[in-house]
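Students often ask why we bother encoding 3D structure as a string. The short answer is that it lets us treat folding as translation between two languages. Here is a chain of 480 residues written in the first language.
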Amino acid sequence: MKIRQHLWTSKTRHALVALAAFSILLSPLHSRAEVRQAPSLLRQLSSSVEEVVRNVSPAVVQITVTGYGQVDKEGRSNTALVVRQRVTGSGVIIDPDGYIITNAHVVSGAQKIQVLLSSQQANGAPASIMNTTTRSLSAQIVGVDRQIDLALLKADAKGLPALSFADYAQIRQGQFVLAFGSPEGLENSVTMGVISSVARQTMPGHPFFYIQTDAPINPGNSGGPLVDVEGKVVGLNTFIITQGGGSEGLGFAIPSSVVNHVYQQLREFGHVHRKVVGAAVQQITSGLASALNLSCDHGMIVADVLPESPAESAGLKIQDIVLSVDSKPIASVPEFESFLFLHDSGEKMKMEVLRGKEKIIIEIPVKERREEEDQLNDLVNKNNLIPQLGILGVTIDERIARMIDDLRVNSGVLIAALTESVDAQEIGFAAGDVIHSVNGVEIDSVEAFRKALGSVKPGSTVALQVERDGQLQFVEFEMD
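And here it is in the second language, the structure alphabet:
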């Protein structure tokens, strides 16, 4: 038998003491001395919560996004208008140098992003809050992963308060958590609840699962952190299930392990590298177990092994029953996909499978699935630098055009990446933007783009026609 050791912190003791106080108050046999002690114990719990809030709040930001989006036009079916919108969400600083993680849907269609920082001097008292000063900073998108609904922003600042990630493996159902954010634009709000489920699949077939909490979450909380009693990020608040439009105790957060992995990938590459082993699994049902004469009627079965894949080379076979991945039991497709997602390319994923009555350990090398975005990045080198703007561009030819979804104009220069240039950040460029013209003159190559910019006199205004997400717009700036 393994004995699990616990680290008893002051906050943990306070929480347990408070629970004991509740028990005393509810007991018909409590003494007067115990009743007098209970309020003191509750004050200790309150102080502990206040301490967590004081430590976490400075690292939570309100995000204001200005851009264009579609809205349904009343009275007309299948008709949408593209209008200028102003959206408010939340984010959390995870690096003192200005890196902020939020949801991808918060910054969708962004042309301008502002982050509002809370004062670090506020101590939670009414007088202090009324005198709190805030600071607004411009932020740029470093990278986005729409499938997982995460985005990484960079603000031009240093020495900011930042939070660390909790160990997802240590998260437990019933654990106290606090949700931070700006619900309905109410900046720096906090609510409290418990973890209802550590791994909830909200839609059949969806490859990922979420942390479920009953801590009240409302529109505007998206991108804010869900933290534990130590002030560490358990997950990132993402969506709610509701009948009335507001919180009904069904809030969902992306787990800390996934958020941290995506953050590292977006910061290094600007996108997330998908991993594959060349195998597919599916849930075992009682009917499937009976028809295939399986030795168990639950768990996961290998449904496919691709020819010449890492899984085939490692010896995995169709109808193997998956017992565990990396020594952890596995019971669902989202669990399998999440374990695979968190591996780095080249690592081995250890699977324990049941083949007939024999248990077998198989180690499968994880490979990187080459996305079109990765292929575009492979084309970029120092020769693609456009120094006037601090961006790396790729000439759009027939091959590149096929890689880009819904490209309006099949010529121009694709912005593959941004450098640390202040110019690129101030103008508001994003990787994936396509530049079609300079001051009304069409460009068809990186060389032509450099030449056109070189002919502009310092101090003159430049207007670029830019395509972003299938929408054309003009971006103007003053040439240094």
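Translate back mentally: Residues 1-14, 75-81 have pLDDT under 50 and may be disordered. Keep this in mind for the problem set.
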